[in-house]
Amino acid sequence: MVNPLCDPLVLTTRLLVKCKLLLFWALVYTFCGLTAWLASLKLLWHIIRNPAGTFQRVVRQTSPPCLNDTSLGTHCYVRIKESGLRFHYVAAGERGRPLMLLLHGFPEFWYSWRYQLQEFKSDFRVVAVDLRGYGESDAPIGRENYQLDCLITDVKDIVESLGYKKCVLIGHDWGGLIAWCFAIYYPEMISKIVILNCPHPTIFCGFGAWQILAVYN
Q1: pTM (2 d.p.)
Q2: Choices 3.40.1260.20, 3.40.50.1820, 3.30.70.1560, 3.40.630.30: CATH for 65-216
Q3: What are the residues whose beta carbons fall under 8 Å from the beta carbon of 137, sequence distance 6 or more?
Q4: Cα distance between residue 98 and residue 192, in whole Å
Q5: Which part of the chain is the AB hydrolase-1 domain (predicted)?
Q6: How many other C-beta atoms can be found within 10 angstroms of the C-beta atom of residue 196?
Q7: SS (H, E, C) the chain
Q8: Do 76 and 91 contact (CB within 8 A), yes or no?
Q9: Which candidate, 13, 191, 136, 50, places its Cα nearest to that of 128?
Q10: I need a labelling partner for 62 at 20 to 30 A (CA). Which of 25, 119, 149, 198 fits?
């Protein structure tokens, strides 16, 4: 026999859960609204004080000191003969050790890997490269120069220009997708692969996101 108290308890529990969710999202949106209001007031105050300089872009005369920190590694450049592009990278660890190549995401550059450069330099030749269009690497004009095929070929050319036949490849975000595709096209050049924050390319097809990537190609 069903306990007659079950239905009221279930209804009460569901009501409490809904109230809890309602309170949670009310707090979230209230906080976001207050933050946006304060930011708007701050922006308005800057516009009143200095309308001409509020939206003026200031060009740095010198790089931030952290970008020139020699303890992170050595700043180097490599020019690819086929494409003619020059790539900037920061390397740590002794030459001759196994290569660990780090590919950053969007809209980042080599500095995203500062901790990994320090962590793995005792066992690897760690190289954090600026992908084409980022940081101090060349940025060719034209969307056709940023197709996946071009980016994958860049990785191959960089590995070979550094004097290696294979590497431990680590990619994050957009760099993760490039790493996935590189491993598919050139599996013989991969000893190990680590992907952060990027699913396998076949997952993009299932969610229709591959059409979005096609825009970049």
Answers
A1: 0.73
A2: 3.40.50.1820
A3: 85, 86, 87, 88, 129, 130, 131
A4: 11
A5: 98-198
A6: 13
A7: CCCCCHHHHHHHHHHHHHHHHHHHHHHHHHHHHHHHHHHHHHHHHHHHHCCCCCCCCCCCCCCCHHHHCHHHCEEEEEECCCCCCEEEEEEECCCCCCEEEEECCCCCCHHHHHHHHHHHCCCCEEEEECCCCCCCCCCCCCHHHHCHHHHHHHHHHHHHHCCCCCEEEEEECHHHHHHHHHHHHCHHHEEEEEEECCCCHHHHHHCCCHHHHHHHC
A8: yes
A9: 136
A10: 119
Token output for 146: 């940023």
For the chain, 217 residues long, give each residue's pLDDT as a single digit of tens: 455 656 777 788 888 888 888 999 999 999 999 999 999 999 999 888 888 777 777 788 888 888 888 899 999 999 998 889 999 999 999 999 999 999 999 999 999 999 999 999 999 999 999 999 999 999 999 999 999 999 999 999 999 999 999 999 999 999 999 999 999 999 999 999 999 999 888 877 766 554 545 444 4
Q: Which tokens in the block code for residue 26?
A: 């009310």
